[in-house]
């Protein structure tokens, strides 16, 4: 199980998932999407891509996070930000 990720893909924007009930950011780190709580400094690694994550997007209420990669075996994954 992945415990911690170092680095960030500067080509993919950081997504602010903060609401009145939580303080979260999402960003791409190679093949992993990271949801980071910047108050508690806890990190949740969302693993599932076979290639580097190229784009991130979120629903208006920040409940759903979409990640996509391109290339061989490209994928689009929709993540529940409350459950991972």
UniProtKB/TrEMBL annotation:
Keywords: WD repeat. This is WD repeat-containing protein 66. InterPro entries: WD40/YVTN_repeat-like_dom_sf, WD40_repeat_dom_sf, WD40_rpt. WD repeats lie at residues 46-84. SUPFAM superfamilies: WD40 repeat-like. It comes from the Eukaryota. The keyword Transferase does not apply.
């Amino acid at each position: 199980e992945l415990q911690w990720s170092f680095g960030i893909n500067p080509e993919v924007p950081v997504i602010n998932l903060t609401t009145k009930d939580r303080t979260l950011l999402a960003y791409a780190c190679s093949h992993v999407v990271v949801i980071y709580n910047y108050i508690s400094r806890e990190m949740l690694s969302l693993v599932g891509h076979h290639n580097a994550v190229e784009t991130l997007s979120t629903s208006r209420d920040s409940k759903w996070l979409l990640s996509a990669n391109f290339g061989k075996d490209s994928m689009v994954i929709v993540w529940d930000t409350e459950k991972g």
